[in-house]
Amino acid sequence: MKSWPINYRMLFALRIGFILLYCPVYFFAQSDIPTWKDAFVIGTIILFITNHILYDYTKKMRWFLLVAAIDFLAASSYGFVFLGGNLPDQCIIGLVGLILFMRIRSPHLVSAWLILLVFYWVTLLTVEYRLLDSIDIVSIIVNTAFVVFLTFIGSLIRYYQQARQESAELYDQLRQYAKQVEGLAAAKERSRIAREIHDSIGHMLTSLLVQLQVTRKLHPIDQNKSYDSLLKCEDLARGALQEVRMSVRAMRDDDWKAAFLESIRTLINDFSAITGMNITFHSSGDMTAVSQQVQLSIYRIVQEFLTNAHKHGKASLTAIQLNCNSSEIELNMLDNGEGTALVKEGYGLRSMSDRVEEHGGTFQISSDVGRGFEVSITVPAQLTPFEERDDDTRLSS
């Protein structure tokens, strides 16, 4: 019982409280009650209190059933000791059924309990009829209804408690699975970034090496061409450094969520400094509650768009708008590049589209010759899954 929530323990305490209030009534049940009956009531009260304490410490089922059996014998004795007293003697039996079915779930227990009750009623009515030559039908109906009602309540409480425990276990499992999925997504992202570093930076460094070799050979022959070649080497080195900075920043998990917008702004500032592109960025809403996977995807989509705008669109001006609300995230990006009448989905656009589809979003492209390129993205606001919560609130509310 100690592992049960506080509201169930309160119900368990009310049970013994009802017994302690109910049993002393028998002191006044009859005007000339014998002393041994007084001793019987006092003895059963002590027994009920002792069993109440034992319920808390009986972990094994057989000991629990033994304590419940003693409780039942003590409760059922009231019907024989105070025979014909016109008192609801079976109320305490109902409380025994309450605690029994709160603890145990078994179809065999239901059958055994019904057989026990039938045997008790037959025995009690037989004794009552032979000694008093009468049977109180109303008392039988009332007592039976009360016992059945409390037994049914005990079953409902046990069912509800088990459902809560199963829900808590499923919640913990689902939270662990979510963490595993998040870790796999992060690992996948790192692998993809590593591949991008190999492809983009490796290509730049190879070109830089070739250009340096050309510069070395041109230097004694034509210093002007050698100087132009050095300028190209400098641009290649800047581009490679920019790729390294952006890739490393995207891989950093620590404080990523808190510094997400700062990372976007740093990406834009660095890109603008290297390419000379004028980039405006506006954001609204709280992005800190958005899952890390969505944030990483948005970061890489902005990076890919800027790269395409510079390399393919020759854009000098780009506008980026990021809005986040409780239901969705909207990202609109527009440049003043050359544009095209026929949009061909290359690696960059396909990469952006795949990222959006992974999160169940929509991806739209519009462009025309001389009118630049526009990308509109809408992603459901996938909040960080299964945040840590107060277990006490979840289990005992």
From TrEMBL:
Keyword flag Nucleotide-binding: yes
Entry's transmembrane regions: 12-29, 35-54, 63-81, 111-131, 137-157
Enzyme Commission number: 2.7.13.3
Positions of the Histidine kinase/HSP90-like ATPase domain: 293-383
InterPro entries to which the protein is assigned, alphabetical: HATPase_C_sf (IPR036890), HATPase_dom (IPR003594), Sensor_HK_TwoCompSys (IPR050482), Sig_transdc_His_kin_sub3_dim/P (IPR011712)
Enzyme kind, highest EC tier: transferase
Domain of life: Bacteria
Keywords from the UniProt entry: ATP-binding, Kinase, Membrane, Nucleotide-binding, Phosphoprotein, Transferase, Transmembrane, Transmembrane helix, Two-component regulatory system
Pfam families on file: HATPase_c, HisKA_3
Reactions mediated catalytically: ATP + protein L-histidine = ADP + protein N-phospho-L-histidine
SMART domains registered for this protein in UniProt: HATPase_c
Gene Ontology terms, MF aspect: protein histidine kinase activity
PANTHER family hit by this protein: NITRATE/NITRITE SENSOR PROTEIN NARX-RELATED, NITRATE_NITRITE SENSOR PROTEIN NARQ
Protein name: histidine kinase
